[in-house]
Amino acid sequence: YAWDANEEYLFKAMMAFAMRRYSSKSTTQISNVLLCNVTDRVSFWFVVTDPSKNVTTVPRSEVEAAIRMNRNRINSAFLLSDKTLQFLKITSTLSPPVEPSTPVWLIVFGVVLCLIVAGIVFLVVAGIRQRKKKNKESTERENLEEKGEVTVTVENGIPCEALDLKAGHINGVFAADDERFTSL
């Protein structure tokens, strides 16, 4: 936008306002703000004179502190930001941290809840598979017993041949071929 006498007046008024807000007892007027070396690119330097003595200037540290304290108000008056309105040797104010649209605790809660639900589903599916496997093994065993085939028992998780208790069991190690039956 064009920098003209009205814009200069507004800048001087904002600097006088900042100086008044910084030191409450100060009576800084617009005439106490002097602009020097104004260029077409809107570049200039300025000084603020002491209202009680028009000859002396206000110390640079006080002017910088006043600008820092009222930076947002100055930027708003010119509809600018810290990136577009630059005061040399005065650091820009930090912008407030960005607040995410979703709170962090809600994201963490969602992740933990999903992990818990996935664990429960896994346990249920594993239990169903194990039950089907046991049912299948027991039906196979029952089918073998019904057919009269040798029964296989499981002891301590190890399949063992069942003994035919009616016929007995002969240990082949102790029985010799010729002495199969002992005489009385």
TrEMBL record:
Collectrin-like domain sequence ranges: 1-184
Lineage of the species this protein comes from: Eukaryota, Metazoa, Chordata, Craniata, Vertebrata
GO BP field: positive regulation of amino acid transport
Keyword Repeat belongs to the record: no
InterPro entries tied to this protein: Collectrin, Collectrin_dom
GO cellular component: extracellular exosome; plasma membrane
Pfam families according to UniProt: Collectrin
Keywords (A to Z) from UniProt: Cell membrane, Glycoprotein, Membrane, Phosphoprotein, Signal, Transmembrane, Transmembrane helix
Transmembrane segments: 104-128
Subcellular location, principal: membrane
Subcellular location: Cell membrane
Membrane topology (UniProt): Single-pass type I membrane protein
Protein name from the UniProt record: Collectrin
